[in-house]
Design goal:
Layout lengths: L12 E5 L4 E9 L5 E7 L3 E2 L12 H25 L3 E7 L5 H12 L5 E7 L4 H7 L5 E5 L8 H11 L6 E5 L16 E7 L6 H4 L1 H6 L2 E5 L11 H11 L4 E4 L8 H15 L2
Parallel strand pairs: 5-8, 5-9, 6-7, 6-8, 9-10, 10-11
Antiparallel strand pairs: 1-2, 1-7, 2-3, 3-4
Helix pairs in contact: 1-4
Amino acid sequence: MCVTCGCSDDGEIKITTLETDEFEHHHTHTLSDGTVITHSHSHDTHIEAPQIHAKIHNTTISLEQDILAKNNLLAAQNRGWFKGRNILALNLMSSPGAGKTTLLTQTINDLKNQLSISVIEGDQETANDAKKIKETGSKVIQINTGTGCHLDASMIERGLQQLNPPLNSVVMIENVGNLVCPALFDLGELAKVVILSVTEGEDKPIKYPHIFRASNIMILTKIDLLPYVDFDVQKCIDYAKEINPKIQIFQVSATTGTGLEKWYAWLIENLKICQR
């Protein structure tokens, strides 16, 4: 169970490699004493790997500490894995419909001759977005979380085994659409990127402060729609800076290309930093 919103993680977690449609899935069972056991199955093997996540008699606080401590340990391992391969890993977060996938596909198409970009795509169900990514020619795997509301470090660890991104490349992790839980879970990324569209409302940073406080970058998308929506850009920026004075903000339109050059320059520069 997610310690933030109470969503269940007892559902099936499926990791799919689109090139072969092979997948492995993970599901959990709660025993009578409250112990949660996770089982893993692949298309040709049945590997049982019990992992105790929490016990019902624990308090919510200790449960949260246990879950986040375990996640943070795995995230540190992921971070070391990325660093050892000179990989720039980014955690893209937003509410549903903010334009993550559109921005991602445009970024890949525009930079494919300069950068190698692989993608871990997170959704509760379907591989629709992963199929869009695959059409760009980028390596991609799909992680379906079932009833889960976010990706965690363990899912990324397993996903990287399937993805096998090249050295000196970029890995984009498109998180499940949610402005709450993804901010709590370190995946081992270099930076968190929160994506906000002008169709959502300029007060999102103060309504969901944790995700903006945790993020290094805010990308304000769909700015081509500003003439048609009631959205105060400066007020949104002021709110974001109020929550996180260090946050870096890019205003872009993936449809028209406006502002993308600054986002691309940031990617190229930070990949160079990872390679030093």
